[in-house]
């Protein structure tokens, strides 16, 4: 069987142009540019909890990095470096080859360097720590939402959740529809460019990993404000649209995790600035509500009634 | 059951004095001091691979951080920040209370800040990424060893391995002896102060996590040199001493992992400087050999014969 060191060399050692020292010493060395703060985040994906054990490893390589890039996006940070810690039941060259390809494909797209890591034997577990730069004082925090802010989300919501519902046998999607939605589940596109464009525009931001209501809830709690959401404004795909009058459809859009879109708030005077960003990036960005006084998040249907989904979002220990 | 967010708040959220923004947003924000490089390393500990599932969690909290601090020590870096990703089969308040206590006890000793992390459900897995600072160009790398350098190690070697041999039933140590050695296994003392003191003295350094020969091997490969080691010079405890004429004892001292002592090389003219560091730190530091031309690592007994242990060190996939 390949040794731990050969494995790192073969699958995870690549040139690291913007780094003082990459993989292969006790630590990597890097230089943060003057006037920049370093943004740091870590996310761990566990087999059986975050993904089915038989998920193709190309998708896992992509997703392990994507969920971390999404955290950089939510801070308005430029992602630059990442470390990977990987626990594997056994060495499977084919699995590793594809995992590595999925990881580096996305890393190259965002020009980030894999600077270090750890490989060990154990139940399948993927842990990435990502580091990025943001000019001092310009990070998009959860705590900056102001009463009167518009609430925006990028992309569409709930596709990953409805793909999962199909895989779990709760619904049966036509094949073409499932394939469209499963892209959202397996290969989410982290909204890094959007995060960068929102510096100086957004008052607060978060990425939607636990579900819209749960993640908006974090903004509300951190900022000490409430929110009103127009259910009819929520952006959904044509696949999810027909399910919106069912509890499952409502749960997917309001509480479905794994979307990795950005939710952000911005003063109403920046409405046209946000719309311009949407055009520039070729990305759907939708105003879904308003920040209010208080601490409640209310979702209203067109007739003014309250939409209740019964569950606020994904929590690994609930 | 406690929620993921309450769990983070209760057990892992502490003031972070030297950090712009700590736990609780999509990423932490930190500032690296001018003229400093950031040293980054990550280590993952897996239940059943790195520790017995019933290991007291205070020890696990200590050790998960200690092995990472040891990487900072080996680079001559001042550790400053860490993230923790934790996968748990279930929430056990008592387990978490003690894990957190073990972690923060060591974090406080080294004045480092836990700035972020992730908790999730899954097989027990502890992954820490550590970040530290080192003045530009002053990091202790594996690649700097020069022919003629003395080879030094701190502390004693093999106690962790012999404690493990006892726990696995290969030998039977008297209780007092086992307790002494198990301290090395469960609560290794990362040699951070030594690493800092060796800036400007050592040409190369590594921490001994996989066993002396394997880790010296990394220095030799990176530096393109060989080594001669005097077996009789290797520092061992009074517990391990009686086993040195047995294969098991030799394996413990030469190939036993989990020591987390530093192995470093320094020019012979710095011999008294190293000895002064030892006195200042109250730490045993022993010269065990010399860097040679070539690429082989030879261990000689007093009679000049070669000592062979048959295995060079710990590798998770061999």
TrEMBL record, chains A, B:
Please report the stretch or stretches of sequence annotated as the PurM-like C-terminal domain. 146-300
Give the catalytic activity. thiamine phosphate + ATP = thiamine diphosphate + ADP
EC class, as a word, reads: transferase
Q: Which Pfam families match?
A: AIRS, AIRS_C
User: Which pathway does this polypeptide act in?
Assistant: Cofactor biosynthesis; thiamine diphosphate biosynthesis; thiamine diphosphate from thiamine phosphate: step 1/1
Where along this sequence does the record place binding of Mg(2+) 4?
Answer: 26, 41, 71
Chain sites annotated for binding Mg(2+) 3? 26, 71, 207
Which GO molecular function annotation, any one, does this entry have?
thiamine-phosphate kinase activity
Among the GO biological process terms of this entry, one is: thiamine biosynthetic process
Q: Does the keyword Kinase apply?
A: yes
Q: Where does substrate bind?
A: 50, 258, 314
Check the record and name the InterPro entries matching this protein: PurM-like_C_dom (IPR010918), PurM-like_C_sf (IPR036676), PurM-like_N (IPR016188), PurM-like_N_sf (IPR036921), ThiL-like (IPR006283)
Q: Where does Mg(2+) 5 bind?
A: 210
Provide the residue positions that the database annotates as binding ATP: 117-118, 142, 209
Q: Tell me the Gene3D superfamilies matching this sequence.
A: PurM-like C-terminal domain, PurM-like, N-terminal domain
Annotated Mg(2+) 1 binding lies at 42-43, 118
Residue ranges occupied by any PurM-like N-terminal domain in the UniProt entry? 24-134
Q: Where does Mg(2+) 2 bind?
A: 43, 71
State the UniProt keywords alphabetically: ATP-binding, Kinase, Magnesium, Metal-binding, Nucleotide-binding, Thiamine biosynthesis, Transferase
Q: What does this protein do?
A: Catalyzes the ATP-dependent phosphorylation of thiamine-monophosphate (TMP) to form thiamine-pyrophosphate (TPP), the active form of vitamin B1.
The entry's family comment says: Belongs to the thiamine-monophosphate kinase family.
Q: Fill in the misc note.
A: Reaction mechanism of ThiL seems to utilize a direct, inline transfer of the gamma-phosphate of ATP to TMP rather than a phosphorylated enzyme intermediate.
Q: Which HAMAP family match?
A: TMP_kinase
Q: What is this protein called?
A: Thiamine-monophosphate kinase
Which organism does this record belong to? Candidatus Nitrotoga fabula
């Amino acid at each position: 069987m390949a040794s731990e060191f050969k494995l790192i060399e073969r699958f995870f050692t690549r040139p690291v142009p913007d780094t003082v020292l990459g993989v292969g010493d006790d630590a990597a060395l890097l230089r943060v540019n003057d006037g920049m703060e370093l943004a740091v985040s870590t996310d761990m994906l566990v087999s059986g909890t975050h993904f089915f054990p038989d998920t193709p490893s190309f998708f896992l390589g992509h997703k392990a990095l994507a969920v971390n890039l999404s955290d950089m996006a939510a801070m308005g940070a430029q992602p630059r470096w990442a470390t990977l810690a990987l626990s594997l039941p056994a060495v499977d060259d084919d699995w590793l080859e594809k995992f590595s390809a999925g990881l580096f494909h996305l890393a190259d797209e965002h020009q980030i360097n894999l600077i270090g890591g750890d490989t060990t034997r154990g139940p399948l577990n993927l842990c990435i720590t990502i580091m990025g730069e943001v000019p001092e004082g310009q990070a998009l925090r959860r705590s900056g939402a102001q009463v009167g802010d518009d609430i925006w989300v990028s992309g569409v919501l709930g596709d990953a959740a409805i793909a999962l519902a199909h895989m779990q046998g709760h619904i049966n999607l036509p094949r073409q529809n499932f394939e469209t939605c499963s892209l959202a589940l397996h290969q989410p596109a982290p909204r890094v460019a959007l995060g960068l464009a929102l510096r100086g525009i957004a008052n607060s931001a978060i990425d939607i990993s636990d579900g819209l209501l749960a993640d908006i809830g974090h903004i509300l709690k951190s900022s000490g404000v409430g929110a009103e959401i127009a259910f009819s404004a929520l952006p959904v795909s044509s696949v999810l649209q027909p399910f919106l009058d069912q509890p499952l459809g409502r749960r997917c859009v309001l509480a479905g995790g794994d979307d990795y879109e950005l939710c952000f708030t911005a003063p109403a005077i920046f409405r046209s600035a946000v719309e311009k960003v949407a055009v520039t990036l070729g990305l759907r960005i939708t105003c879904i509500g308003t920040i209010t006084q208080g601490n409640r998040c209310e979702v209203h249907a067109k007739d003014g009634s309250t939409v209740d989904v019964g569950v606020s979002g994904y929590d690994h220990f609930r």
